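The methods section describes the discrete structure representation at length, but only in general terms. What matters is that the chain and its backbone geometry are given together, residue for residue. For illustration, here is how one protein appears when written out as sequence plus structure tokens:
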Amino acid sequence: MRGAPRPSRPVGTLTRGTTNPNRLRRADRWLVHTYGPLLRAAPPSPVVVDLGYGAHPVTTVELAARVAVVRRDVQVLGLEIDQERVRAAAPHADPPGLSFALGGFEVPLPGGRSPLLVRAFNVLRQYDEEQVLPAWSRMVDRLAPHGALMEGTCNELGRLGAWVDVRRGPDGGPQPRSLTLSWRLRDVAEPSVVAERLPKVLIHRNVPGERVHTLMTDLDGAWARAAGHAAYGARQRFLAAVADLRTLGWPVLGTRHRWRLGELEIAWDAVAPRD
């Protein structure tokens, strides 16, 4: 709960730390589009946290450049639980807009400030499923009013990804709003390949009887039925598949512009774990 003592040591487990330039470009594109209104409406100098940036801060540096397009006074803070990674990142800091510090799921900020946004990518993948909600709760508890947590996973080059948009619910706990799936469309043989990059809260739920498994099955079916559009390119085939999904009753969010980018956002209730 708010006001509880902050842990004296970072909360979390050290990740492998591997990353690549532009690995999170697709995720950041969605972040800027979706959370842009939150950034514009926020009080001066809103804070965006990149949690668990890894052994090299390149994706944090890229995030800072991308959100600065929306709001020049955004403060981006990269957090890592390993002091050596923080030291290695220090030369890349550009005060006052970009900095790095020691921290984990407790999301410590100087002066008791609260972040407007937290991006946590490829962090929870190594955890057990039952550890996800407590981690979400810690991060959401630290958010500023109307803030958001973006938690997800992508492959090494960022061409496949999936993430959850999590807000603070009426009870103060985490309230997921949507699941977004992302592909580089020209690489797609079957869209269900993205299942290997589902967030930890869903990756073990891709089994018969679970909603996310039904989504993967329906995605592949819609893609197969859209094969006649392939002559016009993967983008047109994907648009036809999305239209098919909507006909099947899936609560697809977003607009045609987002779908053309290879993004599919689904309302959370349609994919949430059954228990």
Notes: The longest helix spans residues 25-41.
